[in-house]
TrEMBL record:
<feature type="transmembrane region" description="Helical">
    <location>
        <begin position="41"/>
        <end position="65"/>
    </location>
</feature>
<keyword id="KW-1133">Transmembrane helix</keyword>
<dbReference type="Pfam" id="PF07332">
    <property type="entry name" value="Phage_holin_3_6"/>
</dbReference>
<dbReference type="InterPro" id="IPR009937">
    <property type="entry name" value="Phage_holin_3_6"/>
</dbReference>
<keyword id="KW-0472">Membrane</keyword>
<protein>
    <submittedName>
        <fullName>Uncharacterized membrane protein YqjE</fullName>
    </submittedName>
</protein>
<feature type="transmembrane region" description="Helical">
    <location>
        <begin position="71"/>
        <end position="92"/>
    </location>
</feature>
<keyword id="KW-0812">Transmembrane</keyword>
Length: 122
């Protein structure tokens, strides 16, 4: 009976010591996740903007180059077809992207280790 009480006290002490660590780890993980999301959104917007602008000006350059030739209509339709192909390839390529590891994996691993330790103590 006294052994069970001692084990319970040890488990309670371990749990109380780790609660602050868990809260700090959660706070840090949320900050890291937030900063990562902000950087991704900003870089995605910049890349999208300049990719769209470069494609538009490339298409215009091709059409203007072919303006005084009999291939003007073919050049315009070719530019449109290239845009559609690029959009399709970009869409298909984005479907295969894997998600980066979550920053909460560290918290989950720490909790698992502590649960294992508590099981060993009991």
């Amino acid at each position: 009976m006294f052994e069970t009480i001692r084990k319970a006290r040890r488990l309670a002490a371990i749990a109380l010591e780790r609660v602050d660590d868990y809260l700090e780890l959660i706070r840090i993980s949320v900050e890291i996740q937030g900063q990562s999301l902000k950087k991704r959104i900003i870089s995605f917007v910049i890349v999208t903007l300049f990719a769209a602008l470069s494609l538009i000006f490339l298409g215009l350059a091709i059409i203007i180059t072919c303006w005084d030739t009999p291939y003007r209509a073919a050049a315009a339709w070719g530019v449109m077809a290239c845009y559609a192909l690029i959009a399709f390839v970009a869409y298909m390529g984005s479907q295969d992207k894997t998600r980066p590891a979550s920053t909460f994996d560290t918290l989950r691993d720490e909790i698992r280790q502590d649960v294992k330790l508590m099981k060993d103590v009991v």
